Amino acid sequence: MTSSGYSDGLGRDCVNIEPLTGAIGAEVSGVDLRGPISEEVFAEINQALIDHLVIIFRDQDLSPSEHKEFASRFSALQAHPFVESLDGLPEITEIVKEPWEVENWGGNWHADVTFLPEPSKGAALFAREVPPHGGDTLFSNMYLAYETLSPGLKELLDSLSAVHDSGEVGRFHDEFDGMQAKHAERIASVHPVIRIHPATQKKALFVNEEYTTHFEGMTVAESRPLLEYLFQHCVRSEITCRVRWQKGTLVLWDNRVTLHSPISDDFAARFDKAGFRRVLHRATFVGEKTS
Ligand code: SIN
Question: Most buried of 114, 171, 174, 175, CB within 10 angstroms?
């Protein structure tokens, strides 16, 4: 047995990768993320992330520092602009839904922080406290969102950019007792509607209903019909996967070519009975230019 738990025919460390759906997501097993993780195993994990866009590791036992260390192998990390990080670990955002709260932080379908001039490349989200059921997270494949458009619409969108706006910053903390506000101003940025992934050179749709407000050079009202169409188009069930959290699950995603949406299905909390606490730690990769 090798340190990753699996070996190839030549006795080298390797991991096991099981795709989750025909479109997006894979479970990766045979690796303890506390390390040490060899260069060859890390390269396989990185390739699995590029191939599947969302990868899931189960039964991990990571301290916040170990989580940060693992995430740092992929990228430098950044703090969230509007909510405080863990004490002493500015790279880790604690995402908390208290038992009496109905909505999960993160809201509707989105990619993270697309209102920044250089939106994050990805994230490593680790489950510390999860409900016995519910609070799953959906992901969608934005390469497929692009590829399944008609040639005419692809051509039109290729020439467009869109404004991504954080909106009032209170939305990131006011309704969440477990999230601490940071003093910061509202942020908006312009990005191409179609972006090219630097590693694959493939095109992906880059809009999301949480932050994209309008096309550059058009009004919100003029933009709305086409944006509404795209928001629906990019979350069709056949291009999504659903991640069920367990304590110790770590999910990595490529934020350049996916959207995600935590499902707010704590109906016990919604109807005034005791709901469930949900605590995840997110290490967010720094951003890069979108064009
Ligand atoms: C997020 O938007 O990063 C949070 C996702 C989640 O809580 O499942």
Answer: 114
Task: Give the nearest ligand 1 atom to 262 CA.
Answer: 8
> Has 112 been annotated as catalytic?
yes
Domains of the chain: 2-285 (3.60.130.10)
Residue 14 pLDDT level (bands cut at 50, 70, 90): confident
pLDDT in tens, 117-159: 999 999 999 999 999 999 999 999 999 999 999 999 999 999 9
Task: Using a cut of 0.70, tell me whether the model's pTM lies above it.
Answer: yes
From the CB of 137, is ligand 1 less than 6 Å away? yes
Provide DSSP, the chain: --TTSEE-TTS-EE-EEEE-SSSS-EEEES--TTS---HHHHHHHHHHHHHHSEEEE-S----HHHHHHHHHTT--B---SSB--BTTBTTEEEEEE-TT--SPTT-SSB-TTTTSSS-B-EEEEEEEE--SS---EEEEEHHHHHHTS-HHHHHHHHT-EEEEE---GGGGTTT-TT--B------EEEEESEEE-TTT--EEE---TTTEEEETTS-HHHHHHHHHHHHHHTT-GGGEEEEPP-TT-EEEEETTSEEEEE----HHHHTTS----EEEEEEEB-B----
CA-closest candidate to residue 256, choices 290, 219, 208, 220: 290
Q: What is the pLDDT of residues 172-229, one digit of tens each?
A: 999 999 999 998 899 999 999 999 999 999 999 999 999 999 999 999 999 999 999 9
Is 174 catalytic? The answer is: no
DSSP summary character for residue 178: T
Q: Are strands 278-284 and 92-97 parallel, antiparallel or unpaired?
A: antiparallel
Whether residue 110 lies in the annotated active site: yes
Closest CA to 186 of 216, 223, 211: 211
